[in-house]
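A reminder from the course coordinator: this example appears on the midterm review sheet, so study it carefully.

Given structure:
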């Protein structure tokens, strides 16, 4: 899966802090309001990016003061193509965890661990690679609000 060619519609360098992730997502939504108003109202892309960026902050770049990652996004009528890059720790197994086969029982519900399942369910495509010391995550996030408006 390759993102659209050319310069991204949005590009952000994000400090590896939760507040910086929040600020980036707010800025991205604000930037999208004029360019793609239906997509700006869609919540799926924001949920996916919040989960993916939080994983980078809490796992890949944890314990690395001053670290940052990049978020590039290309907007199309029906989807957002996103490329996240960081030079943090690799995934423990080399790949994202597989999606949950079935929801856990309420009495055995862990505190976390659902982020990748959420990402996998809300994205049309997810691709992760580690190359030359860099984590590379490419996502295609459909705009559900835009699809509903066309019906």
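Designed residues:
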């Amino acid at each position: 899966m390759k993102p659209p060619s050319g310069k991204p519609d949005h590009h952000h360098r994000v400090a590896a802090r939760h507040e910086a992730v929040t600020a980036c997502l707010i800025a991205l939504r604000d930037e999208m309001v004029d360019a793609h108003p239906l997509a700006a109202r869609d919540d799926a892309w924001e949920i996916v990016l919040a989960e993916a960026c939080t994983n980078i902050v809490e796992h890949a770049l944890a314990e690395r003061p001053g670290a940052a990652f990049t978020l590039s996004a290309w907007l199309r009528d029906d989807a957002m193509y996103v490329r996240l890059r960081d030079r943090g720790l690799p995934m423990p197994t080399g790949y994202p965890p597989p999606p949950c086969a079935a929801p856990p029982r309420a009495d055995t519900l862990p505190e976390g661990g659902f982020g990748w399942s959420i990402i996998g369910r809300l994205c049309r495509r997810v691709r992760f690679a580690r190359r030359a010391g860099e984590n590379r995550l490419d996502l295609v996030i459909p705009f559900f609000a835009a699809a509903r408006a066309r019906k």
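DSSP finds five helices and five strands in the chain. The radius of gyration is 16 Å.
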